[in-house]
Amino acid sequence: VVSGWEIQHLDGLIEVRDAPDLGVGTQIIDAILAGKGVFTSAALYRREYLSKYDLRWDVSIVKLDDWDWFSQAALCLGKIERFDKCSYRQIAHDGPRLTDASMLVNAINHHRILTRVGERIASKNELTVARKEQLARYYHKELQVLSIYSKSHFLQGIKRINALAPELDPRTAIKNRHLGILAKCIGTRQAVELYAGVKKIRGRFSPG
């Protein structure tokens, strides 16, 4: 069961998030690839369901772990009911959070989770060409951070993108229009390294 939730910001403003509509069967795959999901406490899981698919929380993933847990459970393609009410409120506080992590840790975990998502979909024989392309687009999100702070993870990301969708037009995958055009002209790896390198020189990047 997935529900809505609320986020109370430092200024007191309350943001309401509606329960996502994930569809049924293989529609769930496309919902996950479209970025739909819920925070940990906005989902209720049947114990039998978790046992059936031998699902375990991966403690080695220290950032975005709630997204990993939900996506792994959802991609077993069981029945997901939508409860159109808020089940809890997340309240922001001053000071550091237990889940605080650097940009680099976030980026590395983001790519790890995407790899797990792809593997789970492939295990269902549902990793179609269109889904490979969508997954490849998702990998682009953290490439700039990785290109600056972890060359090995950056090159792994480029390799996965090329393996999934070698003909993918980077202009459809990269949100930054200028970077997308540059990637189309000189290649994604070269464009991201150049663009992110310039941003670092200008002080726009910090590993956190």
Overview in brief:
With 208 residues, the chain is mainly alpha-helical. The chain is 48% helix and 10% strand.
Give your account of this protein's structure.
With 208 residues, the protein is mostly helical. 48% of the residues lie in helices and 10% in strands. The longest helix is centred in the middle third of the chain and has 21 residues, at 103-123. The chain starts with a strand and ends in a 7-residue tail after the last helix. The mean pLDDT is 91.
List the helices and strands and how they pair.
Elements: E1 2-8, E2 14-17, H1 27-33, H2 47-52, H3 65-74, E3 82-91, H4 103-123, H5 129-139, H6 143-149, H7 151-164, H8 177-186, H9 188-201
Parallel strand pairs: 1-3
Antiparallel strand pairs: 1-2
Helix pairs in contact: 3-4, 4-5, 4-6, 5-7, 6-7, 6-9, 8-9
List the defining traits of the structure above:
208 residues, mainly alpha, 3-stranded mixed beta sheet, 10% strand, globular
Taking the sheet with the most strands, its summary is: 3 strands, mixed
Strand order of the largest sheet: 2-1-3
Shape descriptor reads globular
By DSSP (H or I, 4+ residues per run), the number of helices equals: 9
Kindly state the mean pLDDT as a whole number?
A: 91
Structural category is mainly alpha
Beta content: 5-15%
Our measurement of the CA-to-CA distance between the termini, rounded to an integer number of angstroms, reads 35 Å
